[in-house]
Amino acid sequence: MSELREELKEKIIEQLNLEDVAVADIADDDSLFGDGLGLDSIDALELIVMLDKDYGIKLSDPKEGRKIFESIGVMADYIAEHRTK
Amino acid sequence: MSKGIAITGMGIISAIGNNVAENYSALIEGRKGISRISKIDTVHRDAIMVGEIESSNEALIQQLDLPATNNYCRTALLGAIAAKQAIADAQISDINQYRTGLVSSTSVGGMDMTETYYYDYLENTNTQKYIEGHHAGDSTQKIAQQLGIHQSLVTTISTACSSAANAIMLGARLIKSGKLDRVVVGGTDCLSKFTINGFKTLMILSDTYSTPFDENRKGLNLGEAAAFLVLESDAVVKAENKKVLAYVKGYGNANDAYHQTASSENGDGATLAMEKALKVAGLKPSDIDYINAHGTATGNNDLSEGRAIINVFGDAIPDFSSTKAYTGHTLAAAGAIEAVYSVLALQHNVIFPNLNFKTQMKEFAITPQTTLKEKELQTVLSNSLGFGGNCSTVLFSKNA
Amino acid sequence: MSTKLHIERYCHIKNSTVSLNGAPLFEIASEDFLTFIKAAYKELDTKYSKFFKMDNLSKLAFLAADVLLKEDTSLSEGEKNIAIVLSNRASSLDTDRKHQASISDPKNYYPSPAVFVYTLPNICIGEISIKHKLFSENSFFIFETFSADLLKVYTESLLKTNKAEKVLCGWVDFDADSYEAFLYLVSSEGTIEHNNNEITRLYRL
Predict the structure, then answer these.
(1) Which one, out of B109, B143, B316, C31, has a CA that is 20 to 30 A from the CA of C142?
(2) Confidence tier at C1 by pLDDT (50, 70, 90)
(3) So where are chain B's domains?
(4) Which chain A residue's Cα is nearest to C116?
(5) Counting one residue from A and one from C, how many pairs have CB atoms under 8 Å apart?
(6) How far is it between the farthest Cα atoms of chain A?
(7) Cβ separation of C111 and B201 shorter than 8 Å?
(8) Which of B73, B161, B190, B391 is catalytic?
(9) Cross-chain residue pair A41–B262, CB shorter than 8 Å
(10) Domain boundaries B247-397, corresponding CATH code
(11) Model pTM score
């Protein structure tokens, strides 16, 4: 599980072009949106594409994403449970 | 009070009709032009609904009497048809008798042909002619050619979904400042995989009929359309004894300065655009009889725009409706389509219904007009809000 | 407005060089745009992490605008009434190609929302507006080549009718490997006259 979390941190930094952020800067329970990592609605959509592309999870409602992307921890749990690849 | 600029002709082709009269009948009969997509082969066929124009490219080419060697993309075809209608409506026989400009807007340009022939281009020399037609300015040049405008200002505005409203604004200013006597203004955009896929990734396309200002709205229907208006100076109107359809009375543009695509929570940009337009026109909010809202039926737009309307109008909200449930969201053409509808509303003293509305939004108490309403109208406000935070408002009046 | 209009400041970004009023602020030997613009961002102390999410056209326009606007102390925060009128030749073609590539291969079909949002040329104006809190009028034109006259006419109209106190205008073009930004700020301040000859002269510098 901690491997998946690290993997997610790396992917998020890469995918969302978080130039000034390092893996070590993101705690498992940091909130990704709002005051935490400061991600916005387009980032959320980009993460939805990532779920589909890398883990075979399809979300149809962007509102679902908001809950799943609360933190790296929550996201990793969700992926572990639902992944198809 | 500043004087309005005369509108002396208009032309339109959209999913609900091939000319102004057909569009008007559909509007008053509540007939929407939304269906499953038939002309573009997309994997999203069953997941979206669109406002598609019935005529095929071949039919449009025939209508324009173009040679087989033409390289018109669908955007240019639609634009040329609507612009020629506008010129005919304004009863202009010699376009170069006065200094006449063209300000056209598009966001898609020749993307449709690029999508169709992309892989073909390397091998098939017959299709290579469309490469030239890809860029946004090409459709404008072709429309200018069709109208016979050779020596005057011809330019393209590309500010997303507010483009055509900005074209109207620029046209009015060019006449006000005396740079031109007559300007043909409007916009054109065809459906393309490019926009379908793009809006799909933003998850703002509805899988059914769009429902502007409804609590349960699921997103927008994309549409294709073109519309143009002829604006003329008072001197031309007087010299030619022109019939004036309505006046462009005011206009305003502001940036929402919030996000690349999303509108701000309280509609700051839209609020400023409406306030600026009222100021230019020298009118009070209470002078507005009807608002043709941008109303795309996305969660974000309708909430933000609704709040902006409340910011400007307070407790005295005029009748408002979005006509996008009829036509779909026609992107860069939307401001011109809705300008034509605003003028029709003034001419016939009628407010077009906001189709498909069922449930009141929770966040505020304002409700769109959902049935056809007859009412004496003097001034109509039309909003066009674009990605990039580009927000525009145009006011149309019966009187100068 | 009877005051004469001037070009207060101007900025070029091309050939791996950022310059303000004709004098280089930053230069690098690298030919690669991304390497260059990232180094320029750091060197010019831009401090805006969203910069890295932008597409190439926005990066180019944003940095040129930032060079011009961060100097502006004459207007306080919240009252910067600076309109923006930009133009180019390639529209958003560079990013359009990226989006197109992501939808043309059915086997690897993952269009990116973060790419799609930049497939309009005026998004770069949005980025400038967000950073500098400009709620002002803004427009984007597509021309075959740089047109001093239209920019001048539009700008004069905005300033003479008091729609804005200053106008940030110019040319920002990005297509494949070539890029070029020339932005200038027009107001009643400064010494360079705001006319077609001067605009064209500065553009060609």
Answers:
(1) C31
(2) very low
(3) 5-239, 247-397
(4) A42
(5) 28
(6) 32
(7) yes
(8) B161
(9) yes
(10) 3.40.47.10
(11) 0.86
Residue C78: its pLDDT value, please?
Answer: 57
In a mutagenesis test of the C interface, which of B201, B203, B256, B272 is the best target, namely the one with the most C β-carbons within 10 Å? B201
The SS3 of residue A69 is coil
Closest chain C residue to the Cα of A56, Cα to Cα:
C110
Give the active site residue among B73, B190, B294, B391: B294
- State whether A45 and B261 contact (CB < 8 Å): no
**Domain total in chain A:** 1
Cβ atoms of C113 and A16 within 8 Å: the answer is: no
- A70: domain range? 2-82
B222-223: strand order across its sheet:
B34-35, B50-51, B222-223
In a domain, C1, yes or no: no
Cβ distance C113 to B201 less than 8 Å, yes or no, reads: yes
CA dist C24 and C205 (Å) reads 12
Query: Quick one: pLDDT at residue A61?
Result: 84
Give the Cα separation of C70 and C107 in Å (integer).
46
The CATH code of the domain that includes C97 is: 3.40.47.10
Confirm whether B294 is a catalytic residue: yes
Q: How far is CA A8 from CA A20, A27, A72, B390, in A?
A: 17, 12, 7, 35
- Which residues in chain A have their CB less than 8 angstroms from residue C127's CB? none
Alpha helix (H) ranges present in chain B? 20-29, 57-64, 74-89, 111-117, 129-132, 136-147, 163-176, 193-201, 234-239, 268-281, 299-313, 324-327, 334-348
Calculate how close chain C gets to A62, using CA atoms only, in Å: 12
Show the tokens assigned to A61.
Answer: 């409602």
In this prediction the ipTM stands at: 0.81
CATH class of B5-239: alpha beta
Q: Contact, A36 vs A30, CB < 8 A?
A: yes
Burial of A6 (0-12, 13-18, 19+ CB in 10 A): middle
Structural domains counted in chain C: 1
Residues B214 and B385: their CA atoms lie apart, in Å, by 18
